[in-house]
Design a protein that fits this description.
The chain is built from two helices and six strands. It is an alpha+beta fold. It has a single domain, classed as Thiol Ester Dehydrase, Chain A, CATH 3.10.129. This is Thioesterase domain-containing protein.
Length: 157
């Protein structure tokens, strides 16, 4: 499945530019994380959890779950929108298990929609391979051109 009107190499340029966009977001300087676009409709974020993300009871705060689940689903969906930045309009989150330390992987997968509204889901898996959370998001095409964002550069690489 390729974005309409794009070649395979064009899609790869778009995917690499999305990875660069993720890395350039100021909020991501707060997290040890990296984005990998696997293929159209699929994204993976690897991140480390340590005590700096704990709530008072000694496990990762839900903000970490939300951020990584939202980002993985968002980028999975944005692989299908090559012209516009998507915006999260809603996100449902389910906590399955607390996590304390180690690498966590957020896997995002596009579910439906290609014009104005996109639906994508994501899941978090801990270092033992157990699911610790999952979510589903709805994303809408914004008026913001991807090409207008300083971190999005399909020609870099």
């Amino acid at each position: 499945m390729q974005p309409e009107g794009s070649s395979s190499s064009g899609a790869q340029l778009h995917f690499r530019a999305l990875e660069t966009l993720y890395a350039s977001a100021p909020v991501n300087s707060l997290f040890r994380s990296s984005l990998e676009i696997i293929e159209e409709g699929r994204a993976r974020i690897r991140f480390m959890v340590d005590e700096s993300a704990y709530h008072a009871a000694g496990a990762a705060h839900g903000t970490i779950y939300f951020k990584m689940l939202d980002d993985a689903a968002f980028y999975a969906a944005n692989t299908l929108a090559t012209d516009r930045f998507l915006l999260t309009t809603s996100f449902n989150l389910h906590f399955t298990k607390p996590v304390k330390t180690g690498e966590v992987v957020a896997e995002g997968r596009w579910v439906s929609g290609k014009r104005r509204v996109f639906v994508a889901e994501s899941r978090l898996v801990d270092a033992e391979g157990e699911e610790i959370g999952r979510g589903t998001g709805t994303f809408m095409r914004s008026r913001i051109a991807l090409s207008s964002l300083p971190g999005y550069s399909p020609d870099a690489g």
